[in-house]
Write a structure and sequence with these properties.
Helix content of chain A: over 70%
Strand content of chain B: under 5%
Strand content of chain A: under 5%
Structural class of chain A: mainly alpha
Mean pLDDT of chain B: 65
Number of helices of chain A: 5
Order of helices and strands of chain A: HHHHH
Order of helices and strands of chain B: HHHEEHHHHHEHEHHHHHHH
Number of helices of chain B: 16
CATH architecture of chain A: Orthogonal Bundle
Number of domains of chain A: 1
Number of strands of chain A: 0
Distance between the termini of chain A: 18 Å
Largest sheet of chain B: 2 strands, antiparallel
Radius of gyration of chain B: 45 Å
Shape of chain A: elongated
Oligomer: heterodimer
Low-confidence stretches of chain B: 176-204, 267-277, 293-354
CATH topology of chain A: Serum Albumin, Chain A, Domain 1
Structural class of chain B: mainly alpha
Mean pLDDT of chain A: 91
Largest interface: A-B, 41 and 32 residues
Low-confidence stretches of chain A: none
Chain lengths: ~100, ~375
């Protein structure tokens, strides 16, 4: 397992060093905005805030409410594309 | 490095896949967190709800979904069937036709003046019975002028205002004075009707020489070019120096209209010869004659030296200055040969004087001058 973790660490490091991580992040953000994921989630935020009260909302509240929903709401096409890119990167640099 | 390579190559696909999934979920979580921070900051700063409308306005501007109405609640052709009363002519006009009608009614749009001008041009056309399809003809540019249109010229100004205010009620009577926006001409001045058709010069009015008496003709011919165009049979109203007609043409017209004895051309060209003759300075004239011996002597010139009184009738192909100089040279040659030559020079000078002089002057004081010389 430590090998795995070492290996993971290595790969993550490579990902960051080569700038691929940033690129993937930007790609994801753009795609999610395009498909309306952001707006959906924002609307959900509004509900949460109205529920909790404007003054007393904390970051934690939001994170707890939003993140699971966010994960679910990502469209399949976006997910597939991203995974494809990651696999390509791994194939190129892991072996 | 070798160790890493070995460890990396030892991975199998499932692990790689798991790894990929992990990386993906990391990325998604990053995105979510980013959004949360943004929202939280907006809430705390107070601008989170700014882009929303309040409930009341939401109800006011809700999308309308009824039949016969658009989403704003407006009826489509609500004003189509309504009628308005025109303040100018007091007729009731359909609403969608109201604006163009008003434009024509008041005479203020672009089109309305164009149409009016065209109507006038065509009515003038009918009045003057001219041939009207000569756009690419030279004579189109003659400012031909109709005697009849001069009468209408006086009414022009009052007609303009009157015409515009009553435009739609004018029956199609081409002879009505109200419709005659005129074509008053000075030499070269364009009339209003020309502006309507920029590509057609104002050819439809011109002087019809048949209608003019001899006095009028003569006065016209002294000031204007007067060359009669073949196509329209009208006289050119440009100045004596109009570039479209040559002096020969002008002379021919004068001969034709006024008779052979009365042809006169008060041209600036011939100042050199005619003026010095009028001054009756024989010596000066003689010296001039002898000076120019190099110009061509046209055959008609020698003929004219024999026929002293009538050489003005002959149509000379050359331009005037040259022929006159040619005459001078024959005169000069004659003068140089002595008294016999002197007499021939007399006759040639007589011919010269006849051609250039005004008709009222008596024919030759020449013999008296040359008596002195001889």
């Amino acid at each position: 397992m430590s090998k795995d973790s070492k290996m993971r660490a290595t790969i993550n490091q490579k990902l960051t060093e080569m700038g691929e991580r940033e690129r993937l992040k930007e790609l994801l953000r753009a795609k999610l905005t395009e498909c309306g994921w952001r707006d959906q989630l924002k609307a959900h935020c509004k509900d949460v805030i109205k529920e909790k009260g404007l003054e007393h909302v904390t970051v934690e509240d939001l994170v707890v409410e939003i993140t699971p929903k966010g994960r679910v709401l990502v469209p399949d096409s976006v997910k597939k594309e991203l995974l494809q890119r990651i696999r390509a990167f791994l194939a190129q640099h892991a072996t | 490095m070798k160790m890493e390579d070995m460890s990396l190559s030892g991975l199998d696909n499932t692990k790689l896949e798991a790894l990929a999934q992990d990386i993906y979920s990391d990325l998604v979580e990053d995105a979510c967190l980013g959004l949360c921070f943004e929202v939280h900051r907006a809430v705390k700063q107070g601008y989170f709800f700014l882009d929303d409308t309040d409930q009341e306005s939401m109800k006011d501007f809700e999308i309308v979904d009824q039949p016969g109405v658009d989403i704003f609640g407006q009826v489509y052709n609500q004003w189509k069937n309504k009628e308005c009363v025109c303040p100018n002519c007091n007729r009731s006009i359909a609403a969608s036709r109201f604006a163009p009608h008003l434009e024509k009614c008041l005479g203020m749009g672009r089109n309305s003046s164009r149409i009016a001008n065209r109507r006038i041009a065509s009515s003038n056309n009918m009045n003057n019975k001219s041939e009207s399809d000569q756009e690419d003809n030279d004579d189109v540019n003659d400012n031909d002028w109709s005697y009849g249109s001069e009468k209408k010229a006086k009414k022009r100004k009052s007609d303009k205002v009157f015409l515009h205010s009553l435009k739609q009620h004018i029956p199609l009577n081409p002879n009505s004075p109200r419709r005659s926006k005129s074509v008053k001409h000075k030499n070269g001045e364009l009339s209003n009707s020309v502006n309507a058709d920029p590509y057609k010069y104002n050819y439809n009015t011109g002087i019809n020489y048949e209608t003019l008496g001899p006095d009028e003709l003569r006065s016209l011919l002294t000031t204007q070019c007067g060359v009669i165009s073949e196509h329209t049979k009208k006289m050119c109203t440009r100045s004596q120096r109009c570039p479209q007609h040559t002096d020969e043409q002008r002379r021919a017209v004068r001969v034709f209209l006024l008779g052979p004895s009365a042809s006169s051309l008060p041209d600036a060209d011939t100042m050199v010869e005619s003026d010095c003759y009028d001054a009756s300075d024989g010596q000066v004239l003689m010296s001039r004659l002898q000076w120019d011996g190099s110009s061509d002597i046209s055959p008609s010139d020698s003929a004219s030296s024999k026929a002293s009184t009538n050489n003005s009738d002959s149509k000379k192909p050359k331009k005037k200055k040259k022929t006159s100089l040619g005459l001078n040279s024959t005169g000069g040659g004659g003068g140089g040969s002595g008294s016999g030559g002197g007499s021939s020079s007399q006759t040639s000078l007589v011919g010269l004087s006849n051609r250039k002089k005004k008709p009222k002057l008596p024919v030759p004081p020449a013999p008296s001058i040359y008596d002195n010389l001889n």
